[in-house]
Write a structure and sequence with these properties.
The complex is a heterodimer.
Chain A lengths: L2 H48 L6 H21 L5 H19 L3 H22 L3 H4 L1
Helix pairs in contact in A: 1-2, 1-4, 2-3, 3-4
Chain B lengths: L1 H27 L9 H19 L5 H24 L1 H8 L3 E5 L2 E2 L1 H6 L4 H10 L8 E6 L5 E5 L8 H4 L10 E5 L2 E2 L1 H7 L3 H10 L8 E6 L4 E6 L5 E5 L5 E2 L1
Antiparallel strand pairs in B: 1-2, 1-3, 3-4, 5-6, 5-7, 7-8, 8-9, 9-10
Helix pairs in contact in B: 1-2, 1-3, 2-3, 3-4
Classes of the chains: A mainly alpha, B alpha+beta.
C-alpha cells in the first residue's frame, strides 16, 4: 500500500474513533450533568417541604450548590450541545435564587418544576430517539 | 465588548472549519467539480452548506459542524470502497455511460432517459471540437456528465503514426528559473549545475537571474528562456553543459 493509502486508512479509522468517542462522551456528559441537576432539584423540594417553606438557609445553600454545579457542567456541555437548548436551565436556576430573595414560593416551585421537566425530558427532545432522527 | 468577542469567536471558528474542510477534501482526493460522480457532487454541496452553520452561529458548537462533516466523509469512503468491490453497486451509485450518438445517428430514447435535449448534445459535442453529428461515430455520456466523442475515421485528427513520421520522444521541460529565482531542486532533476545556468544566461545576454521570467530545459538540452517584458528565445545545451547555437 502507498503512503497515501496508509494515510487514508489511518484517517478513516481516526475519524471513526473520533465520531464514536464524541457520541459516547456527549451522552455521558449530558446524563451526568442532568442527573446532578435532577438530584439537586429533588433535594431542594424535599428540604423546602420539610422546613415548611423556601426561606431558610438550607434551601438557599442547595440552590447555590445547584447553580455552581450547573455552571461547571454547562461550560463542558457547550462544547457538545447547542447553547440555546440548555440556556433555559441556567435562567431558571437564577430565577430560583431571585424567588427565595423575594419570598415567592409559588414561582419558586414553578421554576423548580420547569427545571425538573427539562431534565427529565431532555432525552425526548435532544436524545437519539426515533422521533428526533426523523 | 461582547460584540468584539463574538467577532473573534467567528474568526477562530472560520479558521478551524476551513482547516477541517481542507483536510477532508485532501483526504477525498483531487477530483475537479466536472469530474465528480453524482454522490461526490452531493457530498460537496452538503459539506459547503454544513461548514457555514457553526461559522455563523456562535451558539452552535463547532463540533456540530465537524461531526456531520466527518460522518459524510466516512460515508463517502464506504461508498467508494463498495463501488470498488462491486460493479453492480458502482452502477447503482453512479449510473453507467450511455451511448447517445451511434452510427445510425442520435439515440432519442437514450436522450430522453438522460433528460437531455438535442441542443445539449450539440453543445457537448461542440465542446469536444465537432460541429456536426455526421463527423461522429459514437458519443458517450459519461457518468460524471461529460461527453466523450469518437469521431469517424475520416474526421479524426491526423496523428504522427498516420503520417508514418519518425520523431523524437516527447520530453517534459523542467523549470530551472521561475520569476527571477533558480529552482534548485530542479537542477538535480535536469542533471545540470548552476554553472550551466550561468552559461546559458551569458549566451542569452542576460546579466542577472532575477531578470528572467521563465527558463526551462528539457532532456534533449533545449532551453526556453524569456526575460521580463521581452520575447522568449531558445538555446541548445549539450549534455556537458556547453551552450550551443
Amino acid at each position: 500500500m502507498t503512503k497515501y493509502g496508509w494515510f487514508k486508512l489511518v484517517s478513516i479509522f481516526l475519524i471513526l474513533a473520533v465520531l464514536i468517542g464524541l457520541c459516547v462522551l456527549e451522552d455521558r456528559l449530558v446524563v451526568l450533568s442532568l442527573d446532578e441537576v435532577k438530584r439537586f432539584c429533588y433535594e431542594i423540594e424535599t428540604v423546602a417541604e420539610e422546613n415548611g417553606g423556601i426561606v431558610n438557609g438550607e434551601v438557599a445553600s442547595l440552590v447555590d450548590n445547584l447553580e455552581y454545579s450547573w455552571r461547571e457542567h454547562e461550560s463542558a456541555l457547550c462544547f457538545m450541545v447547542n447553547h440555546k437548548s440548555i440556556e433555559q436551565l441556567g435562567v431558571e436556576i437564577v430565577r430560583l435564587k431571585t424567588y427565595i430573595d423575594e419570598e415567592e414560593p409559588i414561582e419558586f416551585f414553578t421554576s423548580l418544576e420547569i427545571i425538573k421537566h427539562y431534565v427529565e425530558n431532555f432525552q425526548h427532545f435532544m436524545g437519539a430517539s426515533f422521533h428526533n432522527i426523523l | 465588548m461582547t460584540y468584539n468577542i463574538d467577532m473573534f469567536t467567528i474568526v477562530v471558528r472560520a479558521i478551524i472549519i476551513y482547516l477541517v474542510v481542507l483536510f477532508l477534501y485532501r483526504l477525498m482526493g483531487k477530483r475537479q467539480l466536472g469530474q465528480m460522480q453524482p454522490f461526490e457532487l452531493v457530498l460537496t454541496l452538503i459539506i459547503a452548506d454544513l461548514a457555514t452553520i457553526p461559522m455563523a452561529e456562535v451558539s452552535v458548537p463547532v463540533l456540530h459542524g465537524i461531526i456531520p462533516l466527518l460522518t459524510l466523509v466516512l460515508l463517502h469512503f464506504i461508498l467508494t470502497f463498495l463501488s470498488s468491490i462491486s460493479n453492480k453497486f458502482a452502477t447503482f451509485l453512479s449510473g453507467k455511460p450511455v451511448i447517445v450518438i451511434n452510427p445510425e445517428g442520435l439515440d432519442y430514447k437514450a436522450l430522453k432517459n438522460l433528460n437531455l435535449s438535442v441542443d445539449d448534445v450539440f453543445e457537448a459535442i461542440r465542446g469536444c471540437g465537432f460541429f456536426s453529428i455526421e463527423q461522429i461515430q459514437y458519443a458517450i455520456m459519461e457518468t460524471n456528465g461529460k461527453m466523450s466523442v469518437l469521431p469517424k475515421s475520416q474526421f479524426a485528427p491526423v496523428t504522427v503514426q498516420d503520417m508514418k513520421l519518425k520523431i523524437d520522444k516527447s520530453v517534459i521541460p523542467i523549470n530551472i528559473i521561475n520569476e527571477g529565482k533558480i529552482v534548485k531542486d530542479n537542477l538535480d532533476v535536469a542533471k545540470i549545475d548552476e554553472n550551466v545556468v550561468k552559461d546559458v544566461l551569458q549566451k542569452a545576454n542576460v546579466k542577472k537571474v532575477k531578470d528572467v521570467l521563465i527558463m526551462t530545459i528539457d532532456k534533449n538540452g533545449m532551453v526556453y528562456l524569456q526575460k521580463f517584458g521581452e520575447k522568449y528565445q531558445t538555446l541548445q545545451v549539450s549534455p556537458l553543459g556547453q551552450v550551443q547555437e
